[in-house]
């Protein structure tokens, strides 16, 4: 694993020999950004396999194992729509605003993740933040200041899943920590806007004319 002399922090857990996010002026970095942009434009999502090295994944699994029992099913009983907003009684029961999903999984909150965690080190890596901003084509990217949801770990056991939803920020970054034996598909609809209620309703209800979806399988060390 290689690292530039001015960005030693970029080495912690990230395979910088394959993904030189620490060396923004290099041809390898430029090629990486262009490739990621093309994937994002084409697929609506960018998958970077083996972004995190096996040693870091092993450490992440150990960190999660120490916390997962305390959060198992802690979202059970909560019902939300895909926008995380209140229902609208004046609209049809089939309208996306009024379709609620029962949450069935556990969440390790930001305030539960130790300051010296491998995951927090990756999340707070400025080279990674700059790389993502370059891929998105924006001048800067800012981390959430939400004390509970800025950085979270979803914990799912057999039969649990995350419902259809829109993320509450400009983009969502997901890192696979443990690959499931079965399941673990990330399904999404590319380029569907929050105001496109017709397509959202068709997707939620599984209508024949629903827009096409894409799927990625959750793999260890994969950044999406």
UniProtKB/TrEMBL annotation:
InterPro entries: BesD/HalB-like. This is Bifunctional lysine-specific demethylase and histidyl-hydroxylase. Pfam families: HalD. It comes from Zooxanthella nutricula.
């Amino acid at each position: 694993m290689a690292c530039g002399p001015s960005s030693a922090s970029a080495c912690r857990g990230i395979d910088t020999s394959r993904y030189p996010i620490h060396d923004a002026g290099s041809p390898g970095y430029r090629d990486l950004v262009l490739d990621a942009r093309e994937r994002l434009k084409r697929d609506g999502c960018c998958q970077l396999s083996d972004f995190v090295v096996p040693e870091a994944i092993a450490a992440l699994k150990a960190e999660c194992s120490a916390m997962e029992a305390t959060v198992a099913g802690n979202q059970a009983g909560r019902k939300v729509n895909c926008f995380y907003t209140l229902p609208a009684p004046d609209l049809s029961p089939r309208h996306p605003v009024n379709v609620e999903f029962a949450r069935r999984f556990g969440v390790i909150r930001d305030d539960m993740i130790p300051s010296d965690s491998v995951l927090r080190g990756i999340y707070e890596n400025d080279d990674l933040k700059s790389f993502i901003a370059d891929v998105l084509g924006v001048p800067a990217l800012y981390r959430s200041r939400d004390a509970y949801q800025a950085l979270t770990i979803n914990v799912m056991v057999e039969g649990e899943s995350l419902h259809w939803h829109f993320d509450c920020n400009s983009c969502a970054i997901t890192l696979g920590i443990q690959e499931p034996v079965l399941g673990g598909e990330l399904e999404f609809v590319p380029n569907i806007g929050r105001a496109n209620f017709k397509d959202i309703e068709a997707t939620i209800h599984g209508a024949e004319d629903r827009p096409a979806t894409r799927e990625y399988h959750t793999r260890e060390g994969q950044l999406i």
